[in-house]
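Extended Data, panel c. Modelled sequence:
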Amino acid sequence: MVKTRIKTDPAHVQFQLKVELLNITPAIWRRLLVPATIKLPILHDVLQLSFCWTNSHLHAFRLGEESYQAAYPDDWEGDFAGMTKPRDEKKVRLCDLLHSEGDRLIYEYDFGDSWEHEVLVEKLFPQVTGRVVTCLAGARAGPPDDCGSIPGYENLVEAMANPKHRERDQLLDWLGYTYDPEAFSLDTLNRQLEKLKI
């Protein structure tokens, strides 16, 4: 199967991305239409909205051994033994890293809980005017921030499904609301994405 590659000016190309949170079953995913030239910090904002994250932790885009992150020079002076020093994400467009259908990278959010998302280019389309970023489809709610990575998330889902779960009341107090792991509103997400300054 021949993969479609960007053959023209990337400014005239849109990527259809499938973004899936790794190692969670059933899958939590979003299908997004974004400009190929979207800068990584804006893509970060899109992904934060898409998975209902609160942007309260560090993040990185990873492709092979390379890492692209928000630049905090004072923090970057340390020793990066065993890995390449991160690159400043502000200088990088998505099309600088991904070029063809089937190309992928990892977006990691919260280095403690380590929420890894696979960002896969499913299709390339001509760029159209109008809305610049759109969610086409998706499934399930993203985990709440600080819920304790995958084991904490699984415990939360179990507690929400069982009114007699020993930690349910404590988790409800912590969250401040009843968490529905199946909740996802395409219309709500697209209204939020419309407000993003691209």
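The radius of gyration is 18 Å. This feature is highlighted in the accompanying rendering.
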